[in-house]
Amino acid sequence: MKKRIGDILIEMGFIDQDQLKMALAETKKTGAMLGDTLLRLDWISEEQLQMAIAVQSGARILDTESVTVDLGLISTIPKEFVISHKIFPFAKEGETVKAATSNPFDVVARDQLARMTGSQVETYIAPKEWISNAIELYYETALTIDKNVEGITSARLSETAFDEDKIIRLADLLIEKGRVLGASDIHVEPDSNLVRIYYRIDGVLHQNYIFPKSFHQGLVTRFKIMGNMDISNPNIPHDGRIRYQGSFGELDLRVSTFPTHLGETVVLRLLIYSKVVGNLESLGF
Questions:
Q1: Are 189 and 259 in the same domain?
Q2: How many CB atoms lie within 10 A of CB 101?
Q3: Does 216 lie in the same domain as 245?
Q4: Which of these, 4, 42, 11, 36, lies nearest to 127 by C-alpha position?
Q5: pTM above threshold 0.70
């Protein structure tokens, strides 16, 4: 028989018997969970509650500072499901989906997620606010960026002012996607008939987009203009700095270009970035 959360909190020295009795009386009045009541009364911290739940459930506490989110995974799981169950699937390793939740005892949510993904589900404990922010950030922001990028790059370019506007918007979206992913670098690399976009996350390059080659020169020129670089000579390396003001706030980038036989490569180094899902207001959402 598993221990009650109140008893665990007492054993860990976070509350005493009198506080537990008062909190239990309050939960009877309000119908709230004991942990939520103790948080509202400011008798325990979110971290202390997570530690107690981890002891009770055997689930691990999620290190929210180092989470890398698999956008391909979340794009297959309905937003309505993750909101209603307050669960955030963030990665898949082999046949196991990893999901953040504040309630690892929610068997219904875990079983439904397992059926949706055809995988086993491993739950990690995370604060409710972090989960809510992650759902909003990645379901609203990251997937919206992908849809906007697809909308731009699915059409052919022509020499018009409208297409110049599309290139400007596309360059902005690529930077904003890097910010959302917590990337340290963005690489624009030409191929024989394609241009590939990579994001470096935790030291590893991940290919994120493939565009028609017709977008390559426009993107190179746009990033050079943003970095106050010489656009007249593509045959030598160039370096510049970008102060980008986007929907999430201000961002500093170092931009470098290098000539190759397929065209110029571009590397954007994000000098101020974070993978941490914090308060969305601080990101401008």
A1: yes
A2: 27
A3: yes
A4: 36
A5: no
